[in-house]
Structures are given as C-alpha cells and as structure tokens.
Amino acid sequence: MSLNHEILDELRLLTLFNLASIQEGIKVHSDADPDMIAAAERLWHKNLITQKDGGYLTDSGIEAVECIQKAIDILSN
C-alpha cells in the first residue's frame, strides 16, 4: 500500500471532521490551499462527504474517520 500525496491530503482533510458532533461540518473555501480543495472534491466523488467543498460526513465518511482515528491512536502509543 502506498500513501501518495493525494491520499495524505484526503486523510488530513477527513481528520478535520469532529465525530463527537456529526452535525458539525466543514467548509473548504475557494481561497483555501488548492491541495485541500482538490482533496475535498475527490472525497465528494468517493461519497465520503456530502458537498464538493466539504459539508458533512456520509455514513461511509463516518466509518472512514473512525478507522483513521483508531490508526492514529494505535500509532500514537
């Protein structure tokens, strides 16, 4: 498995979502880092977020973030 630049950007963006409150979304503004804008669009196409520029996590997005958080917890010990 390879973690290329695009996947790392997507992971970074997903970690910005707060699972403690799934009613809390994010907005990637048009003047944001172009890599983050592109990552948001890819996550939207993958059906992990509800809007092309952020929005909320879908059910698949919630599952992905839960897995990412578990991996971070394991690696942080």
| Average pLDDT figure | 95
Oligomer: single chain
Task: Please state roughly what percent of the residues sit in beta strands, choosing from under 5%, 5-15%, 15-25%, 25-35%, 35-45% or over 45%.
Answer: 5-15%
**Secondary-structure element order, N to C:** HEHEEH
Measured as a percent range, the helix fraction is 40-55%
Count of discrete alpha- or pi-helical segments spanning 4 or more residues: 3
Ends apart, CA distance between termini:
22 Å
**Low-confidence blocks of residues:** none
* Protein structure class: mainly alpha
Shape by Cα distribution? globular
What is the alpha-carbon Rg in Å? 12 Å
Instruction: Please provide the count of β strands.
Output: 3
Taking the sheet with the most strands, its summary is:
3 strands, antiparallel
Across the major sheet, the strand order is: 1-3-2
